[in-house]
Structure formats: C-alpha cells, structure tokens
Amino acid sequence: MTGTVYLVGAGPGDPGLLTLRAAELMERADVLVYDALVSPAILERAPRAERVYVGKRGGEHSRTQEQINAVLVELAGKHATVVRLKGGDPFVFGRGGEEALVLARAGIPFEVVPGVTAGIAAPAYAGIPVTQRGMAASVAFATGHEDPTKPDTDVDWAHLARGVGTLVFYMGVGKMAENFRRLIEHGRAPETPAAAIEWGTYPRQRTVTGTLETLPAVAAQAGIGAPALIVVGEVVGLRETLGWWDRRPLSGRRIVVTRARAQASDFAAALKALGAETVQFPVIRIAPADDPGPLRRAAARAGSFDWIVFTSANGVERFWYALAEQGCDARTLGGVRVCAIGPATAAELERRGVRPDLVPEEFVAESAVRALLAAGPVHGARILLPRAQVARPVLPDSLRAAGAEVVEVAAYTTVQDGTGAERVRAMLQDGEVDAVTFTASSTVKNFVELVGAEVGRAKVASIGPVTSATARELGLPVHVEAAEYTTPGLVQALRGLFTESG
What we know:
- With 502 residues, the protein is of the alpha/beta class.
- It folds into 4 domains: 4-115, Cobalt-precorrin-4 Transmethylase, domain 1, CATH 3.40.1010; 120-246, Methyltransferase, Cobalt-precorrin-4 Transmethylase, Domain 2 (2-Layer Sandwich), CATH 3.30.950.10; 254-283 and 419-501, Rossmann fold; 287-415, Rossmann fold.
- Helices cover 35% and strands 21% of the residues.
- It has 19 helices and 22 strands.
- Helix 12 packs parallel to helix 13 (343-351).
C-alpha cells in the first residue's frame, strides 16, 4: 500500500485564512504531520487523524529534516491520506520543496496545497500593503537567518538594497541589526521605514515601527521575539492610516470562556471578531437528566398544560428530544401558551416552529413571574417547567403561591468538565489572562472548584445579577455585568470595560 502525501499550507496562524482545500484534506486525513507554528484551532479540523509533531521552536528541533523526510515516506506506506501541515505556504521558506523531492524520488504520490504566506498576510493585518502604486512596484521575500555553517551568503544584498521596493524578511528578528547594516552599506537609506511584526495574524499580533537605524533598538525595547517578520520600505508608513487588526476594541485581550463547549462557539466568535484571543475552558457540559422518565411523561401529555415555561435553550432542546421519543412533535403544543426566558431560548423555539407567546423583558425568573401574572390569572392554571436539574426555586414557588399547579421536571443537568484547568490556573497566576467570563451560576461554582477564586489581574465578567451574586458569594470580584442578560450583552459589556480602561 502506498498512500498520498499532501504538502498543505496552514497559513500564517489565523484559522480564517486556511484554504477550503486544506480544510477538506484535514477532515479526511488518516495522519497529520505538523509544525510548531500551526494554530491549535486549525489542528481541531483533523478530529480523527493520528497526530505527529515535527516542529521547531527557539532553534530546537523535535526532529531533523532528514528524519521528517523519513517519517513521511514511512507513513505513506501505512496510510492512504497523509497530510503534512506546514505553517504559511509549503514552498515559501517551508522546506516543502525538499520534502517533495524526497517523495518524488521514493515514487510516493504527492500533492501541494498552497497556503497564505506570512510575508503577505502579517503585513496586511498590520496595515502595510507590500506593494503600492507610486510607492513600491516590487517586493522581495528573503530569509533573515541563513544557515550559519555556510561559507557565503545566498542573499544578493546589493540588489535588495537598491533594486526592490519592499523587503520582507522571514525569521529575521535575531539578525535584524546585522541585516539592516548590510542594507545600509549597500545603499539603502538609513531613514527607510521598517516594521517588526510579531505573531502575525494571531490575536496576540504586535507591530512596532521605526527605520533601518532605529528599529532594532525599538524592537528590543518592546521585547519583540520570534516568530516575527521584518518589513522594510516606504509602504510601512501607511500603517498609521491603514492599521486595523490591532486597533479593534478587544485586540490583544485574552479572554477565558467557561461556557459549555457546545454553546460557546457563537460567543467565542463574537469576541474574536472584536480582536480577542479566546481560551476555551468549558467548566460544564450539558448532559441528560439523571432520571429522564419525568420529562418523557410530561412531553407525552404536553397538550394538557396551559403554559410551558422554558428557561433556557438547553431546556428546549432536551424537551424536543423527549417529544420525539414519544412520537410527538410541535403539533402537541397546539393550544398551549409558551413562555421563553431570554432571546436565545426564544430563538431555539422559533427554530423548531414555535413562536413564544411571552418573552419577559428581563431574562431572570423574577421577571418571568411578573410577566406571567400580567398575562392573565394563573390561579388553577397547569404550568409545565422543564429546566435544569438543579435550579433556583423562585419561579415554581412564586407561581404556586399565585395558585398555579406547577409540574417541575428535570430536562438536563450540568456536569463538571475540568479539561484544561491546570493551564488556565497557570495563565491566571502568570497574569496572562485579561478577563474570565461566566454565563451561569453553575459555571462560577465549577470554575472555583477547579481553579480557585484567585484570578490575578484578570477581570471577571458576568452575564447577569444571579451569576454575579454567586460569584461574590464564592469570593470572586465582579468587574462588569451585562446590561442585557445574554451573551451578546456580555460581549458588549466586555467591549465597554476595555474601551474605558484602554
């Protein structure tokens, strides 16, 4: 058996820059051979693949290039689809050409999937076009760190200095001063604008600017390190006007998302759109109730109730599972009035063909009680309440006090999920987190149990007053609370917090 090896460019880091072809191959890969600078978020696109790490960081190789070549040949003899995932583009300072030659000589089928190279993407994210009419009609990509064992340089410094509009150096931060000296010696003006871009296209991207004379000192003072690109040319001056990536409201902020993974995607995406780097730490996961019998029985006779009150999208989802198990669907609710607490709950109902009769103005139990009482007499009404296995008693107790018959059933339960707790604790201790978000009291309780109440310099952001009260009871400070008790409201609260604090 001889499989096919795909030399795939992963792009510079931002998962949004991965090509469709790369994503398709990763999803069906049998084995993934990847480098250090491939984003973890990109690796998640290969859920079933065996992973083989062959990266290099800080000059330290996990394997030599010769060993990597041998690994590719060996894996091709065992697997049908081998994806060799390389940061940026395989053929732009990625040694993909060397690997392709080895495969060709071994008679192993291979394909090359180009990727967005950092030399174009990182400057673009920094607001620096590598070509610009009237300013730079040519661009050259050069290595900023040649093999030190070579007796001579392969770089034509005289041509780079005088014959190219924009220069982009890969791996150039360590030898920036030496390379700039060579450019000046060969005729490039010392006052030529230059920029150093660290972690290009990642949320943590940083850019500093100066000139050939000043940038080495500026970058050193700022602590710019690898991975970094160096851009030289008049186009660097456009950054002041065109810079956008690191000027978004949450740029450079690292925010921990504690919501259950299945529900966190939209929330995390909204934070990322504003420039934040999200750390997924789902302290809970949603599971069926310990005893599903009561929910199934309630679903089977759903049409006998006057009201069904859904307190969360999770409750809607689990209730619909129970309906289906009983051979029923939304028609069972004909004639039943439906209340949804919160827009996410209402949206989940509408997605299933049911438009809520009532959505309280505030998304807490107390507001739901007021809204239900205002909607008409509840004395003698039969009200079904499918919700979390452990929940506040305010809603059922208040409705019973008003004379309603309340059938309360557990639709789901939240289970503690501590994956990644040590990493998050270390990041908090080292001051590497800007904010921790909580979307329910259960996330607060589990977070404190798993990590503790010490969050260092991080701000605590809460979705609403109930969650805030739980946080304070457990020793967590609450720095900001959403005005609207939803995840979009929490995003806006974080935006306001960091805009005010700068």
